[in-house]
Amino acid sequence: MNRIDQELAALEEAITRLTKEFQTTYSNYLTFLGQCVGQQLIMAAYRICTQGYPESFLNLSVNSRQQLQQSLQKLAQETQQQLPSLLEQWQESRSATTGDESGGDSGDDSGDDSGDDSGDDSGDDSEMPSSTEDSPFFNALTEPSPAAELRSKPRNSIEKLEQWLKHLESGINKTIQDVSVETNRLLHKFSIIPDKFPQEILEAAAKVEASAIETAESPNIIKIMMETKGDGETDESRLTRIIAIKLRLSEIEFANPNLTPGRNKIRDLLGKMSQLKREYYKKQRQKAIAQAEAAWRASWFED
To answer: How many CB atoms lie within 10 A of CB 144?
Structure first.
């Protein structure tokens, strides 16, 4: 029993070191990602104004063009600050829950359930680093809700790390999605995107699954066909194509090869986490078995 406890303690130390590696890696990755998202936002808006709806942009006064450009620059700067701040929120949230749950990280209560988790869960972890919205990992995540996630408290340190990594990745994708929505709103406000398209349609365009839309020739831009009412006496409906911005993490990373080392490092760390998780649950299982055997012997009496 003492040997198993020592091995569990060593695994806890390894998990702590791994958590620090994640923090350092994500700090560098998110800082550079914020810059890249801002650049891709401006580039996508440029293509919308000059190639998607050039007549609409030309109809603007010089002052309106400058106001639009300044608003886009401000949004890009805010995004550069917002993405790195996700890690700060993650660290603060982990600190807030560590004190209340630290006593149960290697306790007996988690050992009873560990045997069922060591097989199925470990295979899912390899999907986490995928940067595409089509991966099973991103399909399983919706808008991040810290309160909702905390209702199901993790049983140990490896589950806490895994939970907050999922929350962090979900936050990255939601931030990029929200930036797409805000950029489309700006373009709609300045009548670049035609007024006949309601803002609800633009919001839906930024959130729709990649497989359900027509991807434009330019990265981070989509084309959607929608039914609109025609002009004139007939008032017949017709299909109209809308061009809008949908920033994608996969395309942002593809356009910026300097992001690749950071994402590859995250993949490597996730592989280490999967291995630690398997070893941790294996030791928890061994501890539970040893405790059960000792309890059996303690209560057994020969007639």
So the answer is: 19
Q: How confident is the model at residue 281 (pLDDT cuts 50, 70, 90)?
A: very high
Is the predicted pLDDT of residue 110 greater than 60, yes or no?
A: no
How far from each other are the two terminal CA atoms of the chain, in whole angstroms? 29
| d(C-alpha 200, C-alpha 181), whole Å | 10
Yes or no: say if 259 and 253 are a contact pair by the CB < 8 Å rule: yes
Query: 229 and 237 in contact (C-beta within 8 Å)?
Result: yes
- Is 164:25 a contact under the CB 8 Å cutoff? no
Lookup: tokens for 136? 């099973």
Q: Return the structure tokens found at 269.
A: 């760390």
Measured CA to CA, the distance from residue 232 to residue 229 in angstroms comes to 10
Q: Which long-range contacts (CB under 8 A, 24 or more apart) does 128-132 make?
A: 128/165, 128/166, 128/169, 128/270, 129/263, 129/266, 129/267, 129/270, 131/249, 131/250, 131/253, 131/263, 132/210, 132/248, 132/249, 132/250
How many angstroms from the chain centroid is the CA of residue 262?
15
Q: What are the tens digits of pLDDT across the range 1-16?
A: 789 999 999 999 999 9
Token readout for 270 is: 């996730």
d(CA 197, CA 60): 18
Query: What's the pTM?
Result: 0.75
